[in-house]
């Protein structure tokens, strides 16, 4: 039982290392952040447009 436990923890550590390597490989997390921000702002814009249409009716 103990052996399987250490295996799973090793796998988790490998996932963390892989994630760190990915971040280093793509040194532009800001780009991803800006894409997310623009997506949310456009969604807010769409909802405000819909509200305007509803109020006009």
TrEMBL record:
Region described as Disordered: 1-20
The protein's name in its UniProt record: Uncharacterized protein
Species assigned in the record: Xenorhabdus vietnamensis
């Amino acid at each position: 039982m103990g052996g399987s436990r250490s295996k799973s923890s090793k796998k988790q550590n490998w996932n963390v290392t892989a994630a760190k390597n990915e971040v280093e490989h793509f040194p532009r997390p800001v780009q991803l952040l800006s894409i997310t921000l623009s997506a949310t702002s456009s969604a807010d814009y769409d909802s405000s447009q819909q509200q305007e249409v509803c109020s006009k009716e």
